[in-house]
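worker-3 :: picked Oxaloacetate tautomerase FAHD1, mitochondrial
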Amino acid sequence: MASSRNLNRFWEWGRKIICVGRNYPDHAKELKNAVPTEPVLFLKPPSAYVTEGSSIVVPFYSHNLHHEVELGVVIGKGGTAIPQNAAMDHVAGYALCLDMTARDVQDECKTKGLPWTLAKAFNTSCPVSEFIPKEKIADPGNVKIWLKVNGQLRQEGNTSQMIFSIPFLISYISEIISLEEGDLILTGTPKGVSSVQEHDELQAGIEGVVSMKFRVDRPQ
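worker-3 :: tokens ->
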């Protein structure tokens, strides 16, 4: 299918980032959350994107910024109420992503029953790798992802541990929010999330496919 836009640079024009929370049982448990029976969804705006060469900036109102490494799914063909058995036809490729989270702010929002926007949607909260064409990942349901902080391994997991599969998520999300070309779905993070400080270096990768590096800065 010929695309009118360059999917290799989906972050420059894609209109939304749809994130799935608590999609790995061990991560739900490490934050003392119940393991969900249906997907937990939240959004990031396109202004959250940041690519290699730029820094992750800690929001000025947070003192506990956490990393969450995730497999991102890039939509190549839009649709509404996409059936599960056709869901993968709508995928153009993937990206390795970080869902940077102001955990102190999120904890406060949870206590007050407020939305997570301040904790999840700030500028630079969605670092992404280069676009990974679909052919490069034979089975997105069996992908090993990892993240290191200053060379120390913090997160390592496999998408086979996800509660909700990619076809299920595409179908579920598109029933509620129509998907469009260039949209990104963040599929959740494995356990091992932890705090990062100014000057830390984050490295993340998909085994044998891609790796990326970001530095953490405070606002000037």
